[in-house]
Amino acid sequence: MTALALRKTAFDAAPDAGDADPAVLTTSEPAPAPRRPRALPFGLRLPSARAVFDAAWPPLAGIGGFLGLWALLAPAVHTSLGALPGPGDVWTAFTGLLDEAAAARVAAAEAVAAGSTYTGPPTFIDQIGTSLETVAAGFVLATLAAVPLGLVAGMSKRVNAAINPLVQVMRPVSPLAWLPIVTMVVSAAMSGDDPALPKSFVISAIVVMLCSLWPTLINTAIGTASIDKDLIAVGRVLRLGWFARLTRLVLPSSLPYIFTGMRLSLGTGWMVLIAAEMLAQNPGLGKFVWDEFQNGSEKSLARIMVAVVVIGLRQPQPHRLRKDPRRWPRSYRSRASPRATPRAASPRRCSAASTSMSNRANSSPCWASRAPARPR
């Protein structure tokens, strides 16, 4: 072995802890703690700026590219009414429709102040409201008819087999085929001189209902029939009645399927609405498009494009809210989505060896220590 030589300078270079300046030690302050972001209610958290940018730039780039191509190619398309309007022309038509709605509102206020009744045509804003009311009425009627029938069809194989042929035949029927039948039936039923609701509104709402109830019906039946068999067995062990089994087991487990069907039904209702209002002459967006098409003025194409954009923007997107079952509240997630969470291990009898091992390890019983199965 070789020994290293120690020099005196090596000891002199190391500072002594007692020679430190006491003033420096007393005036030094601890580093400030990092500031925590303000907590939001319901456990929500604000995303970072990087996450917002990564999520925002792709749709903004797509919209910008579409508008650029539209503005570039629109002057090259010529129709009987002139060149195809670009984004600027559509925006001008939209502001013109808003100005007309404001002028009509002022005229209606003056007529009411003078003691008379405003008899002008409905404005673009009024027609949007009429279309929303029509879709809402048809969607509510479709939901009230489809959800109970789907629950019964999912719980009973005989009912499912009975209505399955009818659903397969009536589901692909076009709204143009339903409209004459609904018109004759409603006209015969509402034979009074002054009905509570306009006939055109009732006809459009019923046509929307007949064309949009099938997605909700099918998804509800599938969700009810695909419930975990363990839940059904638990209901039999607890001797739950039909209503208790429906409200505590079936309905919570099939809610994701029901909401999916309602979203599809709402989109179908919006697509059916324009054709129904065109033929039924309901004063909504469909009648607005038909009147502008019949008008044939230079601004008609731009106004029709405004209606198309409004129809696309007016369609709500409920599927974006908590579409992932893993983001649901924990107390509801365990009841409503049994397939989204790991299934608990089933109890089993403990052998003598496993019992002795569990006692020596001072752990839980063997059925509780068993690893849960992977989610399907």
Describe this structure in words.
With 376 residues, this protein is mainly alpha-helical. It has a domain at 138-321: MetI-like (MetI-like fold, Orthogonal Bundle), CATH 1.10.3720. The protein is built from 15 helices and two strands. Strands 1-2 form a two-stranded antiparallel sheet. A hairpin with a 2-residue loop joins strand 1 and strand 2 (82-83). The longest helix is centred in the last third of the chain and has 39 residues, at 242-280. It is globular and about 70 Å long. It starts with 7 loop residues before the first helix and ends in a 7-residue tail after the last helix. The relative contact order is 0.08. Residues 318-376 have low confidence and may be disordered.
Q: Name the overall outline.
A: globular
Order of the strands making up the biggest sheet: 1-2
Beta-strand content bin: under 5%
The largest sheet is: 2 strands, antiparallel
Q: Flag low-confidence runs.
A: 318-376
Any idea what the CATH architecture of the domain at 138-321 is?
Orthogonal Bundle
- Cα(first) to Cα(last) distance is 66 Å
Average pLDDT:
76
**CATH topological fold name of the domain at 138-321:** MetI-like fold
Structural category is mainly alpha
Output the helix-strand order: HHHEEHHHHHHHHHHHH
Kindly provide the name of the CATH class of the domain at 138-321.
Mainly Alpha
What's the number of helices? 15
Our Rg estimate from Cα atoms comes to: 34 Å
CATH homologous superfamily caption of the domain at 138-321: MetI-like
Care to count the β-strands? 2
Q: Specify the helix fraction band.
A: 55-70%
